Amino acid sequence: MRVLGSAVLVMEFFVMGFAMLLAKDNHEPSTIIAGAIIALLLLLTPGLLKKRTGWILGSILQFLMIAYAVVVPSMAIVGVIFAGLWIAAIIVGRKGEAARAALMASRTPNA
User: Fold this and answer.
1) Containing domain of residue 84, as a range?
2) What are phi and psi of 109, to 5 degrees?
3) Has residue 56 been placed in a domain?
4) Max Cα distance, the chain (Å)
5) Eight-state DSSP code of residue 105
6) Would you place residue 105 in the very low, low, confident or very high pLDDT band (cuts 50, 70, 90)?
7) Contact between residue 86 and residue 58 where contact means Cβ atoms under 8 Å apart
8) Positive or negative, the Cα torsion across 23, 27, 30, 34?
9) What is the pLDDT of residue 35?
10) Mean pLDDT over residues 61-81, rounded?
11) Which pTM does this prediction carry?
12) What pLDDT, on a 0 to 100 scale, did the predictor assign at position 102?
């Protein structure tokens, strides 16, 4: 679950960097600073995914990515795609962890 979530967040970091490049010519510096803060949080959050707060922060960042569409309109589509990937990472990750736990429980210790 952490690997998939981390991959989504790091990819979003790069996408946010490109979005800030698009926004730098036509918008105020405050929008660039806001994008930089979001990008920095996207880069730091994978380290927090061991705890529940990391997943909550990652979910909040998904909404912030979509909200950045006010600055760069194409971010609405990209943000929705990455939010879907985030949800898929959570669902697939939970199923994978449950399957792994069941496999580990079914193994008999070597005697």
Assistant:
1) 2-106
2) -65, 145
3) yes
4) 69
5) H
6) confident
7) yes
8) negative
9) 92
10) 93
11) 0.84
12) 85
The mean pLDDT value of the chain amounts to 90
Residue 69: inside a domain, yes or no? yes
Inter-residue contact 82 to 62 (CB < 8 Å): yes
Residue matched to tokens 């994008």: 35
Backbone phi and psi for residue 107, each to the nearest 5 degrees, phi listed first: -70, 140
Total of domains in the chain:
1
- Written as six digits, the tokens of 88 are 């898929």
The kind and range of the H/E element at 9 are helix 2-23
And the tokens for 85? 């990937």
Q: What is the mean pLDDT of residues 22-30?
A: 88
Cβ proximity of 8 and 89 under 8 Å: yes
Question: What is the b/e burial string over 48-85, where b = at least 16 CB atoms within 10 angstroms of the residue's CB?
Answer: bbeeeebbebbeebbebbbebbebbeebeebbeebbeb
Provide DSSP, 35-99.
HHHHHHHHHHGGGGTTSHHHHHHHHHHHHHHHHGGGTSTTHHHHHHHHHHHHHHHHHHHHHHHHH
pLDDT score recorded for residue 111: 53
Region 103-110: mean pLDDT is 78
